[in-house]
C-alpha cells in the first residue's frame, strides 16, 4: 500500500488492488473494525464484506478515478467503472480512516450505462 499519511494514495492503491484481485492487499488496508455500507446494506463488518461483496474483478476493464477529496481522516472518491462487457457506472464512496487504515466506506451508487444508454439496475 501507499506511504503512511497519504490517504489519496491509499485510496488509489486500493483501486489498483481490486483490479489486480489482490484480496490480501485490500484486507491489509482495512482496519479490524472496518464497516461497509451501501443502499443495500448497512454496517457490514470486514468478514461479511469479503464473504458477500468480494468477487473476481476480472469483469472490470478499468476504473477512472475522477476526483479524490481528502479532509483530515475523511475522503470522498468519485469514479467511473467500465466493465469488460461495455457497461459502466459512476459511484461516489465516502472513506473514514483510522490512522492509515480504512475504517469505513459508504458507497453511493450512480447511474449505469451501456453503449451510451442508461441501463436500469436491478437489485
Structural notes for this entry:
Residues 12-104 form the SnoaL-like domain. It comes from Bradyrhizobium uaiense. This is Nuclear transport factor 2 family protein. This protein has 123 residues and is α+β, with helices and mostly antiparallel strands. The protein has one domain (4-119): Nuclear Transport Factor 2, Chain: A (Roll), CATH 3.10.450. The protein has three helices and seven strands. The chain has helices spanning 7-19, 23-29, 46-52; strands at residues 30-38, 41-45, 60-71, 74-83, 87-98, 101-114, 117-119. Strands 1, 2, 3, 4, 5, 6 and 7 form a seven-stranded mixed sheet that branches. The mean pLDDT is 89.
CATH class: Alpha Beta
Q: Portion of residues in helices? A: 10-25%
Strand content: over 45%
CATH fold category name: Nuclear Transport Factor 2, Chain: A
Order of helices and strands: HHEEHEEEEE
- The overall number of domains is 1
Extract low-pLDDT stretches.
none
Largest sheet: 7 strands, mixed
Summarize the structure.
This is Nuclear transport factor 2 family protein. It comes from Bradyrhizobium uaiense. By secondary structure, the protein is α+β, with helices and mostly antiparallel strands.
